[in-house]
């Protein structure tokens, strides 16, 4: 059950981040369908790759954590861009790629700070227990 809550919360956070990036960058075109498909694909790819990155981070310590997070965001965006039609999800230009990757990465870092607390609160609430502080 916790993985489902984590998946839904991550998808919601990623969807908001894509909307912010699309508003800020003219070279990031995003239709409603592209937003839905892109959010789903990006969430899937990043959750799948996260375990690989976590293993590398444990092995190579803090420098891998920073670089791995940025790389994870970039690879997730690249795969999403490749698997989604250009009419629905399209990133163009080096600057757009760099800044959208950084926006998504920063948003993910912020989300990760509250992720476990949100998961526990939702899980406890579904079990009828009060949320722990």
From TrEMBL:
Keywords on record: Membrane, Transmembrane, Transmembrane helix
Protein name: Phage holin family protein
Transmembrane segments: 7-25, 31-49, 61-82, 94-111
Native species: Jiangella aurantiaca
């Amino acid at each position: 059950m916790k993985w489902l809550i984590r998946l839904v919360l991550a998808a919601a956070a990623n969807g908001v981040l894509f909307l912010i990036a699309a508003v800020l960058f003219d070279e990031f075109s995003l239709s409603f369908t592209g937003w839905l498909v892109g959010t789903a694909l990006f969430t899937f790819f990043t959750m799948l790759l996260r375990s690989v990155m976590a293993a590398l981070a444990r092995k190579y310590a803090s420098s891998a954590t920073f670089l791995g997070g940025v790389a994870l965001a970039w690879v997730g965006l690249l795969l999403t861009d490749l698997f989604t039609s250009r009419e629905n999800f399209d990133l163009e230009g080096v600057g757009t790629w760099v800044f959208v990757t950084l926006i998504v990465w920063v948003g993910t870092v912020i989300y990760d700070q509250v992720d476990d607390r949100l998961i526990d609160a939702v899980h406890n609430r579904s079990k009828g227990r009060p949320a722990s502080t």
